[in-house]
């Protein structure tokens, strides 16, 4: 069960991060929309790195190096999730204010 959930999460977050990365770098889109999309990309990359960190704990033999790498990946993934969410929400609010101001 863990493997199916893990692989689904890895593939979904990898596809989402590539999609958002390509979408954010298109020409002719508003800079706030691009930054919102980059926030979504950071969220999906945070999920991916967090899943890599959680996967390290699923092995039978846990040595000190594996635990250190897992905790490091979890830390980086959670930080990426938090900062990506913060950026997305900040730029979404700025974009909504700009749309409201222009209409």
From TrEMBL:
Source organism phylogeny: Bacteria, Bacillati, Bacillota, Bacilli, Bacillales
Please tell me the species this chain comes from. Answer: Brevibacillus borstelensis AK1
The answer, when asked if Transmembrane is one of the entry's keywords, is: yes
Pfam families linked: YtpI
Organism superkingdom: Bacteria
Q: State the protein's name.
A: YtpI-like protein
- According to the record, the segments passing through the membrane are 6-22, 43-59, 65-83
UniProtKB keywords: Membrane, Transmembrane, Transmembrane helix
């Amino acid at each position: 069960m863990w493997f199916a959930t893990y692989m689904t999460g890895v593939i979904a977050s990898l596809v989402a991060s590539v999609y958002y990365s390509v979408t954010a770098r298109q020409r002719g889109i508003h800079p706030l929309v691009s930054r919102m999309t980059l926030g979504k990309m950071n969220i999906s990359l945070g999920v991916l790195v967090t899943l890599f960190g959680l996967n390290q704990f699923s092995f039978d033999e846990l040595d000190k190096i594996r635990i250190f790498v897992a905790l490091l990946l979890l830390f980086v993934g959670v930080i990426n999730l938090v900062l990506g969410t913060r950026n997305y929400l900040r730029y979404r609010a700025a974009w909504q204010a700009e749309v409201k101001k222009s209409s």
